[in-house]
Amino acid sequence: MSSEDIFLMDRVLACSARDYVESVGKRLVDYKMVGVSKVSTNLGDFVRNIPRNAEVVTHYTRSGTDVGFYVGVALIPKQAQGENKYSTSGH
Predict the structure, then answer these.
(1) Where are the beta strands (DSSP E) in the chain?
(2) Residue 90 resides in a domain
(3) Within a domain: 11
(4) What is the torsional sign of CA 9, 48, 36, 41?
């Protein structure tokens, strides 16, 4: 796992999108929400599916035993939407 993956993992949260945006003094309308999911044995695979311009992933959950189903909601600031919107290249 690269150092960039570890940084991204710090932005994967179990709290709700509303709780997160209120904690940083913003509103949900300031963000585009994009679902992120991955079936894998490795959290790093999920992290590499997070859009590059996502500020954070909320509602994170994992289900399963050996092979996990990882899911969350990426919050992308609306001013960042035009910046390589859903690119995960470079991860």
Answers:
(1) 31-40, 56-63, 68-77
(2) no
(3) yes
(4) negative
Residue 45 included in any domain: yes
User: Contact, 65 vs 85, CB < 8 A?
Assistant: no
Q: pLDDT per residue over 62-88, tens digit each?
A: 998 889 999 999 999 998 555 444 444
Q: C-alpha dihedral over 4, 39, 76, 17, to 10 degrees?
A: -110
Whole-number Å distance between alpha carbons of 64 and 51: 24
Widest CA span of the chain, in angstroms?
39
| Cβ atoms of residues 54 and 75 within 8 Å | yes
Per-residue pLDDT tens over the stretch 6-61: 657 788 999 999 999 999 999 999 999 999 999 999 888 999 899 989 999 999 99
The reply to whether 87 falls in a domain is: no
Domain range for 22: 3-78
